[in-house]
Design goal:
The chain has twelve helices and twelve strands. It has one domain: NAD(P)-binding Rossmann-like Domain (Rossmann fold). The protein is α/β, with parallel strands linked by helices. The protein is globular and about 65 Å long. The structure holds thymidine-5'-diphosphate. The site of thymidine-5'-diphosphate (TYD) has 12 residues, from α6 and β7.
């Protein structure tokens, strides 16, 4: 999005291309003259310092992370390597190579899961105390603390945002929405953890990108901004709507895929509820989510069902092993 919207910027996209990374997702910008792809691992400090010296970046938008809670429960160390060590490597490289820090910015993109779990009422504000529960959220909380520590200690110009659950095209089908679209299409069980009453606040990915754009350009240094969809749903409410939309698109009888719902053992340490108070980003940066959830879900379902080849490519190989270990 930045590549097309800001032709005067040169965008360097650094990615390790793990199982979830896929250059096919950004084939449309591959040949743009203001875009360069760099394959690399943020956990490799020598390499990171080298590319900071080589390219002399003006700013960093740090989105690189291991992000799937279930995987963090099986392999917490991988999350420490990328999310914690990787973030500190980037901070160090920026701090070392940005001799003059004016007009520089290190923007760290994080999650609302650092705040822990809400009961039935209340919302996360930027003042909510950190209380992460999963190895994933603990690793992101740690990275957030390091980013603030670099602001306080070295005056590195930083800004942080903490966002709720994203959905939309191109999301790896381990996350609830794409996983369930794929399973409904293939008549496979829909594994609902616990009683399905956990609440998430869903945000369409393009609304998140727009919030990042606003924060990157107008956010105050040293500040944190929460981003959310104003769109709380229990998992069962979400799954019901999803089934309706997918059944309709597949010309199946409305609700016929409900029979696929299967309650399975709860996720360990499963957070009950996340919800975002948007007051700060709304009043300071005039940002609000724009896309209505039904529309966003329909766009998402259409994208997945129209891109079967993409789905079959990413659900072969390693994905099959993961799925069997996780759900069979
Ligand atoms: P997920 O997409 O993994 O996002 P997060 O854990 O970061 O919120 O899960 C969203 C919700 O859906 C969460 O409450 C866990 C639940 N869930 C299931 O019930 N079954 C599944 O197979 C998955 C992947 C998630």
């Amino acid at each position: 999005m930045f590549v097309n919207k800001y032709p005067d910027y040169h965008i360097y996209n650094l990615d390790k291309l793990t199982y979830a990374g896929n250059l096919e997702n950004i084939a449309d910008i591959e040949n743009k003259s203001n875009y360069t792809f760099i394959k690399g691992d943020i956990a490799d400090n020598t390499y990171i310092e080298k590319i900071f010296n080589e390219y002399n970046f003006d700013a960093v938008i740090h989105l690189a992370a291991e992000s799937h809670v279930d995987r963090s429960i099986t392999n917490p160390l991988e999350f420490v390597m990328t999310n914690v060590i990787g973030t500190v490597n980037l901070l160090q490289a920026a701090n070392k190579t940005w001799l003059d820090k004016t007009n520089k910015l290190f923007y760290h993109v994080s999650t609302d899961e650092v705040y822990g779990s809400l009961e039935e009422t209340g919302k996360f504000t930027e003042e909510t105390a950190y209380d992460p529960h999963s190895p994933y959220s603990a690793s992101k909380a740690s990275s957030d603390h390091f980013v603030r520590a670099f602001f306080d200690t070295y005056k590195l110009p930083i800004v942080i945002s903490n966002c709720s659950n994203n959905y939309g095209p191109n999301q790896f089908p381990e996350k609830l929405i794409p996983l369930f679209i794929n399973n409904i299409q293939q008549n496979k069980n829909l594994p609902v953890y616990g009683n399905g009453l956990n609440v998430r606040d869903w945000l369409y990915v393009e609304d998140h990108v727009d919030a990042i754009d606003q924060i990157f350009h107008k956010g105050k240094l040293g500040e944190t901004y929460n981003i959310g969809g104003n769109n709380e749903l229990t998992n069962l409410e979400l799954i019901d709507t999803l089934i309706k939309v997918v059944d309709k698109k597949l010309n199946r009888k409305e609700g016929s895929s409900k029979k696929l719902i299967t309650f399975v053992e709860d996720r360990k340490g499963h957070d009950l509820r996340y919800a975002i108070d948007l007051t700060k980003i709304n009043s300071e940066l005039n940002w609000n989510p724009t896309l209505n959830f039904e529309k966003g879900l329909e766009k998402t379902v259409n994208w997945y069902l129209d891109n079967e080849k993409w789905l079959s490519n990413v659900t072969s190989g390693d994905y099959k092993d993961y799925y069997e270990k996780m759900y069979d």
